[in-house]
Amino acid sequence: MMDWARDSLEKVTATREGRAKRPPPKLTDEQAQALLNEFHPDYLGRERTVGVGPNAGKQKFPLELAELLESDSVLPQNFEPAIDLTTDVLILGGGGAGVSVALTLAESGLAVHLATKLRLGDANTVMAEGGIQAALGENDSTRRHFADSCVGGHGNNDPQLLRILCEQAPESIRWLSNLGCLFDQNEDGTFRLRKGGGTSVPRVLACRDYTGLEIMRVLKDAVLLTSTKILENHSAVELLDNGEGQITGAVLWDRSTEKLVSVSARAVIMATGGSGQLRLQGFPTSNHLGATGDGLILAYRQGCCLIHTDSYQYHPSGSSYPEALAGQLVTESIRAIGAQVLNVHGERFIDELVYRDVLAGAIIREVAQNRGVQTPTGRSGVWLDTPLIEMNHGKGTLRRQFPGLIHRFERYGIDPAIQPLLIYPTLHYQNGGIRIDPSCKTELRGLWAAGEVTGGLHGTNRLMGNSLLDITVFGRRAAQSVMQEIPERRSATLAGLNKFRAGLKNIQPSSTRTAPLLFPIASKMKFHLAEEPPDEPASTTETSSEKKSFREPPDPFGGM
Ligand code: MEZ
Q1: Residue 335 appears among annotated catalytic residues
Q2: Among residues 113, 266, 335, 408, which one is catalytic?
Q3: Which of 34, 81, 117, 520 has the fewest CB atoms found within 10 Å of its own CB?
Q4: Half-sphere exposure of residue 246, counting CA atoms within 13 Å on the CB side?
Q5: Is 358 a residue whose pLDDT tops 90?
Q6: Half-sphere exposure of 47 (CA within 13 A, CB side)
Q7: Residues 364, 283: contact at Cβ < 8 Å?
Q8: Is 315 a catalytic residue?
Q9: Closest ligand 1 atom to the C-alpha of 463?
Q10: What is the mean pLDDT of residues 250-260?
């Protein structure tokens, strides 16, 4: 395997013993900043201001996001939101944040609907591998967690949000454990804690390398036992408001019937996640299919300011080979337990646990300066020396601690215990988003937000393990705030959208695109409205799920 890289791989093997115990090359702060300025995608000027909405003319956005923020709604111009469904709380998003909100509201007596554009739990949460942070180690403290995260975020973190995150972390771990989450433990029963990039002490709890999947498993199981009404295949396509800036519901698109569903709600919680599927600057992504930034677009149209949305996280270890795994995550935990990053000559060029943005910049530099490895399909990358882990920690370590990784690569004939993996930065996380206060309230009455769709908490570079923590801490917090301050029901109109549409007319040249995207551009799934049926009596036997007009994925058994 990987014969095309034989010369380089031989150098990696030949240098392994010698490198194993040598300390990593260190960078000064100035050198790290220079790497960012010259090579990190956020710093290359591929951004612009927009001409409409609350950030107009001020903040810069990546070009791909700017275009969506200046796009028209998918709703037909003549659409009138006649209310189809009435609830107290409408949660938009079925990942970890949305489900944490729903679980916390379960005993509130409020009617709760959760709308998710795919199935419950189909979200970035399940893609999170390496873990969740909480200051539970002997030499650790919430202050230390705060300090590490703040330095990692370039000091741009909202200190109030970050303090809450760090202080609530141990309690979140208790909550998840009580729900049945099986975090890895040491033989004495204490949690096994790993280091991550930027953590000054071991602080990352994990469930092997499928931590997000395990967390989502327990959240999903628990929410299905509550009275929350789950609306699967329901994408949020617009927010409704009362004409005076209060959010009072949403318009959903039911993918199975291809019809619009207007929902009146006293509170709406935006938990729609990130936007890695925008594949900024052509980067591959580690993100779930649904991560198309829908919540940013909807909230922005209504007048919510977005912060730090020019800051994205490119995870340094995205897979670059084989082609079928391009962009998929190779967890940072592999580097945390000692896998080294090497160029085509088998040389170690950086400390693998520097902040993610700096490491990503360093890898991009190696490739740009011809010290990377080219794949037969035209991708580039550097080596992640995974066999070194087996050498240092014993045979079978990777299979025991990273079964997901082994499973993924073995399918393509690559055994990471024997062969180094080729990696290149992959678009991983949206550092910024909707501005919230410490109760998760947005600037608009009636609208709360939690999780990756929000900005401020992580500054301009999130630390590993702080996002699974974010969704549980702030998902629960949003729900508590809603319980205390839920507004009375008000009329649900498209006044906010109409105002935005009027603003769009002033933009030159005008965009012909519509947003939210809902699905990645290359996906076969597209927003489409069913033709109005001719006037005939509705069938009494056919249910909406039987009327599925979307195409099912191919049958993996080939019709056997
Ligand atoms: O928080 C993350 O982004 C994370 C844990 C990623 C990983 O490398 O596993």
Answers
A1: yes
A2: 335
A3: 34
A4: 16
A5: yes
A6: 17
A7: no
A8: yes
A9: 1
A10: 98
